[in-house]
Write a structure and sequence with these properties.
Elements: E1 5-13, H1 21-28, E2 38-47, E3 62-72, E4 77-81, E5 85-91, H2 95-98, H3 102-120, E6 126-133, H4 143-151, E7 165-176, E8 179-198, E9 203-218, H5 228-250
Antiparallel strand pairs: 1-5, 1-6, 2-3, 3-4, 4-5, 6-9, 7-8, 8-9
Helix pairs in contact: 3-5
């Protein structure tokens, strides 16, 4: 079953790149000028520099932004730099654009993570891909049938559930290169309103639909690191991981 996508997130867990003029410049150089990325700091904290600690921060202690973003309104992409990870988030799709877009997004994320890892000598400790699918309810795909597929039971004393809310986590052994890696496959479902953009007539439509958020991520472990090749393989395969997991629920 093909589904429109409400949002996608690609993540690498790594050391922080703190907001300062030099770091913003170094990151901006990795991005296309045509995409119009703009930097924005969003959280400030006091940083105490520890001698010998390898992180990309200013050389003096003091109050600095520890979370910041590069935002492109044109590409509808937000790159979030946090204390432990870098997230790339893309949202606000039209129906026509979003279906099958996972591979394009993951390729863009893979290229950016490759560039920034090399420039800042980052050590990658976890990887994640998290798409949120927003299929419309139909006559054959509705709250009652979806509930039955998950729980194999009829709704409790009512023709259909008033709402859907559940979370499931599976741990699965996968491989990256010749390395065995334990993955978390996380699914969260709820019913809600989603805003769909129609680029043809430049309108927004509010629909009642299923929000099925998937998160495929590597399981954390002591001394776990991923090479550039393993990171590339993860994001190359991420759309297939998501398609396989999506099919488990609404295939």
């Amino acid at each position: 079953m093909d589904c429109q996508i409400g949002e996608m997130r690609a993540t690498v867990f790594t050391s922080p790149i703190v907001y300062d003029e030099n770091n913003v410049k170094r990151v901006t150089e990795l991005l296309s000028a045509d995409d119009g990325f703009v930097a924005n700091s969003i959280k400030v904290a006091t940083v105490q520099i520890v001698p010998g600690l390898k992180i990309n921060v200013p050389t003096a202690s003091g109050s600095v932004p520890t979370e910041w973003e590069m935002i492109s309104e044109k590409k509808k992409i937000r790159i979030h730099f946090g204390p432990q990870k870098i997230d790339i988030v893309k949202n606000t799709f039209s129906n026509e654009q979003s279906i099958g877009y996972e591979a394009t997004f993951c390729e863009w994320a893979k290229e950016f993570f490759s560039k920034i890892s090399e420039r800042f000598a980052l050590v990658l400790t976890r990887l994640a891909f998290a798409p949120t699918y927003t299929p419309d309810w139909t006559k054959d795909f509705n709250k009652k049938t979806f509930n039955a597929a998950i729980y194999k039971k009829e709704p409790f004393k009512s023709p259909e559930p008033a709402n859907l809310l559940f979370k499931q986590v599976f741990r699965v052994s996968e491989t990256l290169g010749d390395k065995g890696v334990l993955f978390n496959y996380v699914a969260e479902a709820s019913e809600g309103q989603s805003v769909i953009e129609n680029l043809k007539n430049k309108s927004l439509t509010v629909k009642q639909m299923l929000n099925l958020s998937l998160d495929i991520n590597t399981y954390p472990g002591k001394d776990v690191e991923f090479s550039a090749e393993e990171m590339n393989e993860f994001f190359k395969n991420a759309p297939l991981y998501a398609k396989d997991f999506l099919g488990y629920y609404i295939g």
